Amino acid sequence: MENPLRETENAVLRSKLLRQISDAVSGIRKLAEVDLWEVSLVTFPANQAANVTVIKQADRDTLTGFSCALDRMIGDLAGR
After folding, report:
1. Which residues share a beta bridge with 20?
2. How far apart are CA 9 and CA 2, in angstroms?
3. Residue 11: which domain range?
4. pLDDT in tens, the chain (80 residues)
5. Cα–Cα distance for residue pair 12/15, rounded to 1 Å
């Protein structure tokens, strides 16, 4: 059975005018390519499920430096 919407989606993707589409039938978003531009640690994430659960690799100096930087930022914020 022909699906005009699906045929149009396929034609647009083949033309490379778009790199991704949302599948209206299943509700699943299919991403052909993803560019991640920025990652930042925040106290209150917009997405409540966005949590750091594992640190794959970090040496003691890196963690100590990070901890000191956080302490300085907290001190700066408290002084405002």
Report:
1. 31
2. 13
3. 4-78
4. 577 777 777 777 777 766 665 555 666 667 778 776 666 778 888 888 888 887 777 788 888 888 888 888 888 888 86
5. 5
Q: How many structural domains is the chain composed of?
A: 1
- Other Cβ atoms less than 10 A from the Cβ of 76: the count is 9
Reduce the DSSP state of residue 21 to 3 states and report it.
strand
Q: Would you say 21 and 9 are in contact if contact means Cβ atoms under 8 Å apart?
A: yes
The values of phi and psi at residue 17, to 5°, are -70, -30
Which tokens belong to 78?
């408290």
Residues 18, 5: contact at Cβ < 8 Å? no
What is the Cα–Cα distance from 15 to 21, expressed in whole angstroms? 13
